[in-house]
What does this fold into?
Amino acid sequence: MEVSPGVRLLLDFVNTYDVESGVYALPSFLASERLAGLGPAAPAVELWEGLRAVLTLHTEPSGEQDAVAGLNALLGAAPLTVRLDAHGGAELVPVPGLRGAAGLTALVAAAVAGACADGSWARVKACSMENCRWVYFDRSPAGRRRWCDMAVCGSRAKMRAYRAAKRGQAGPPGATHAPAGAEEAGTGGVRQLPRRGEAR
Ligand SMILES: [Zn+2]
It folds into this structure.
């Protein structure tokens, strides 16, 4: 499944802030060529936070349900219009000539509507790992992937579950296998976090 330009925009927008490393690249995203002509988009951070919170529900369905109402309120201000094509199709697009925050909000709203229309919205997800929240497109056949990177956040989550299971059981470990590094990492307060790979 290919990532549409709209979904690519959503991923790049939310990932302008890397929760784990603290790298913040929103200004350069807003200044990028595809957003040329938009001008300053001051409330971008609110929109960004709202989107990330909703995308987290795609991996943590029992999470913060207020996130949906919050994002709805922001997207409610997005001026969209319907554009027909010559093949019997139609899509929601930003009203022409928008600038600033309204322009960005409309671009995001149109991208969300487009992803819903082509069935890819549920596959746009924020990593289930709390200190990561990297946003990715889930290409797995069943669409049940919960982590940005199985080798990094997936193994962290398994290690955490393994430790919790180990604490909770009196006898020897049963079918649960320790992930690589679980023993060496111990239960101390300091964790060595592996860096995320390039494969996302
Ligand atoms: Zn992650």
About this structure: The helical segments are 5-14, 26-30, 44-57, 66-75, 100-117, 150-168, 182-185. The CA atoms of residues 27 and 116 lie 28 Å apart. The two ends are 14 Å apart (CA to CA).
